Amino acid sequence: MIYQIAHTTIYTYNKYVELTPHIVRLRPRSDAFQTLQDFAIDVVPEPKGISAIVDLNGNDVLKLWFDEPTKELKIKVSSQVETHCHNPFNYLLEPWAMKLPIADYPAPILRHLQPYIEGRVDPAAVQLAQEIWHGSRGEILTFLSDLNQRIYRTCRYTIRETGAAFPPGITWRQQAGSCRDLTVLFMEACRAMGLATRFVSGYQEGDLNNSDRHLHAWAEVYLPGGGWRGYDPTQNLAISDRNIALVSSAIPEYASPINGSFRGRGAYSQMKYDLSIEKLC
Predict the structure, then answer these.
(1) Which residues pair with 99 in a beta bridge?
(2) Do the bridges between strand 176-177 and strand 156-157 make them parallel or antiparallel, or are there none, so unpaired?
(3) Which of 89, 201, 217, 224 is the most exposed place for a label (fewest CB within 10 A)?
(4) Domain Transglutaminase-like: where (predicted)?
(5) Which CATH architecture has domain 2-84+257-279?
(6) Over 60: is that where the pLDDT of 209 sits?
(7) Which CATH architecture has domain 95-239?
(8) Does this chain's domain 2-84+257-279 share its CATH topology with 95-239?
């Protein structure tokens, strides 16, 4: 699939403000599953400088800094991406990674994966993981499929445009959440079983006739023998060629699309955005 994406974010302020440096994480990644064919960014007001950075997670991000007060910040990115993952199950698991919980990672692999496994796992996620594990007989792929399906069927999808992801206990108790809330719940249930996971921010094809578009989030699980593989509990899907990944991180906050702030006594901001996704072929 080849997609053309136009994504504009506009911040307006009630008075002139000074902008701190902003990090923009809206450049689609290029890897085995997708190729970035074209990318452009337009910023108003014109930044004093723009630098391309590879962050701690290996993501390609942009840092903008400014030197003039403004009452508006407009960031428009245009991307063309070709996706390649037609079969999300085209891999062969390592023999020692067929059952859960995984407790015997080879030491070199474990050192790499530790940031994606560690953390305080919410008791609600632990209980959910144990229930799914018991029903799946410890089969790793069955566990992931059943977990994806349980969250999808149990939790009502809601749109929440701003704010950090809710703790898994809140999402599971409310049985509702945004895509990032459901993703964090999925991640922590996986980590309770010793599976390394990371949070992914990106786009999803969805209904191409629907003009109401939003950023999307899903999880990637590291499967020994298969590498990082995506699961979307909001859609109950294994990620294939209809998702376009921007960035990923073990910590969801480091996958947010734009980070930055402003200075100005009594100043406040409002945000709006416009997103279009066109499938070219």
Answers:
(1) 139
(2) parallel
(3) 89
(4) 171-235
(5) Sandwich (2.60)
(6) no
(7) Roll (3.10)
(8) no
Q: Give the pair of three-digit tokens for residue 187.
A: 């991640």
Question: Per the structure block, which two tokens stand in for 123?
Answer: 């008791």
Nearest to 73 by CA among 142, 9, 1: 9
User: What's the first-to-final CA gap in the chain, in angstroms?
Assistant: 6
Angle between helices 140-154 and 123-136 (to 10 degrees): 120
User: How many angstroms separate the CA atoms of 182 and 186, rounded?
Assistant: 6
User: How far is residue 18's CA from residue 174's CA, in Å, rounded to a whole number?
Assistant: 39
So where are the chain's domains? 2-84+257-279, 95-239
Q: For the whole model, what pTM was predicted?
A: 0.94
Rounded-to-integer distance, Cα 27 and Cα 41, Å: 9
> What string of H, E and C letters represents the secondary structure of the chain?
CEEEEEEEEEEEEEEEEEECCEEECCCCCCCCCEEEEEEEEEEECCCCEEEEEECCCCCEEEEEECCCCEEEEEEEEEEEEEECCCCCCCCCCCHHHCECCCCCCCHHHHHHHHHHHCCCCCHHHHHHHHHHHHHHCCEHHHHHHHHHHHHHHHCEECCCCCCCCCCHHHHHHHCEECHHHHHHHHHHHHHHCCCCEEEEEEEECCCCCCCCCCCEEEEEEEECCCEEEEEECCCCEECCCCEEEEEEECCHHHHCCEECCEECCCCCEEEEEEEEEEECC
Tell me which long-range contacts 177-180 makes (C-beta under 8 A, separation of at least 24): 178/217, 179/216, 179/217, 179/218, 179/232, 179/234, 180/217, 180/252
The predicted model gives 63-84 an average pLDDT of: 97
